[in-house]
Amino acid sequence: MSDQIITAVTNQLHAIIDPYTQNKLTANKGLVSVNVDSEKVVVHIRRGYPVRAATPVLAELVRDSLNSVDLDKRTLEVLVSQEIVSHSAQQGAKAVPGIKNIIAIASGKGGVGKSTCSANLALALSAAGAKVGMLDADIYGPSQPRMLGISGKPEALENKQLLPMLSHDIKIMSIGFLVEEDTPMIWRGPMVTQALEQMLRGTAWNQDAQDIDYLVIDLPPGTGDIQLTLSQKVPVAGAVIVTTPQDIALLDARKAFKMFEKVEVPVFGIIENMSTHVCSNCGHEEAIFGSGGATKMAEDYGLDVLGQIPLEMAIRQLADSGTPTVVAEPESETAKRYQSIALTIAGKLSAKKKNFSSKFPNIVVENS
């Protein structure tokens, strides 16, 4: 009877679609085991993304699917674990020690809320159970130190590497830690790209012996030197484009997508920020920047709209105070939107081809 139950349960699990990867729940060795004893059936599934927030959803999917299976009066127990691994990036980019996956958050133009989205997405990934880092790559206008509520200067190690700063359980590196807040960075392109590489590779991300699952890079707006350096020399697993529904913002967002397409960095999708404004007095909702723009762009390029974030005062106030929405108001509707977007990005990444380069030794052939 136990073998029959295992077979029936396994067959039923093959039919479940993971809502975060859009693949079968059992794909890529997602089903670890189905164990049956006289009292219970234990189903163990493993995900390639953080599962702290996703476990209730996944467990309910499994339970609903197995309602039709006769467990012969046994109880059902669902175990969900995570194993986040490195995934493939563009060819020719050298891996960064201590970092499994790099996600770039980009926008075609400034003022669309990209940095606020970056901070909240990083915090959402951390709250979901991942080890997360943040690299503030906006050399000319670093904002993450203030948004994440941290000040001071990073400690230098004997090997001249810098220890990342820590806030809200996220490791952070920014040029904002190394210069005064009101000091302008009057640098030419080569100096900027050198600073980016130094911050990325000169930071001891895993000094505590814990690798970072996701390094979120908050890019400056546009498609200039920093974006080009990143896409050519940094192993980016994927990018996310932030835009508003406004036509002008969408024109530049399309350029950002085209840039990533040219350098073979996959784009996970689009976040439509400032999607609608909800009046705090009467509750009236209005699309003051237009509507449907991100959806149209997604349709044109075969992308997904990862989510829509409203224009509300609390988002700005909380970011300015150093406690973004996801940590200040984790149960709010807006925080849940950020959390859903973060899990969708992580799920899409987990479905990508894995990076097996660390599994193989370097082979050198010499003439003797």
- Main pleated sheet: 8 strands, mixed
What's the order of the H and E elements?
HEEHEEHEHEEHEHEHEEEHEHHH
Roughly what fraction of the amino acids lie in strands?
Answer: 15-25%
Total number of strands = 13
Mean pLDDT: 88
CATH homologous superfamily title of the largest domain:
P-loop containing nucleotide triphosphate hydrolases
Note the total helix count.
11
CA-to-CA gap between the ends?
A: 64 Å
Give the overall shape. Answer: globular
Q: How would you portray this structure in words?
A:
The protein contains eleven helices and 13 strands. With 368 residues, the chain is α/β, with parallel strands linked by helices. Strand 2, helix 2 and strand 3 form a beta-alpha-beta unit. The chain is 32% helix and 19% strand. The N and C termini lie far apart (64 Å). The strands form three sheets. Strands 6-7-5-8-4-9-10-13 form an eight-stranded mixed β-sheet, with helices on both faces. The protein folds into two domains: 2-82, 2-Layer Sandwich (GMP Synthetase, Chain A, domain 3), CATH 3.30.300; 99-350, P-loop containing nucleotide triphosphate hydrolases (Rossmann fold), CATH 3.40.50.300. Residues 358-365 have low confidence and may be disordered.
Element layout with pairings:
Blueprint: H1 2-13, E1 31-36, E2 40-47, H2 55-65, E3 75-82, E4 99-106, H3 114-127, E5 132-136, H4 144-147, E6 165-167, E7 170-174, H5 189-201, E8 212-218, H6 225-233, E9 238-243, H7 247-262, E10 267-272, E11 277-278, E12 285-286, H8 293-301, E13 305-308, H9 313-320, H10 325-328, H11 333-350
Parallel strand pairs: 2-3, 4-8, 4-9, 5-7, 5-8, 9-10, 10-13
Antiparallel strand pairs: 1-2, 6-7, 11-12
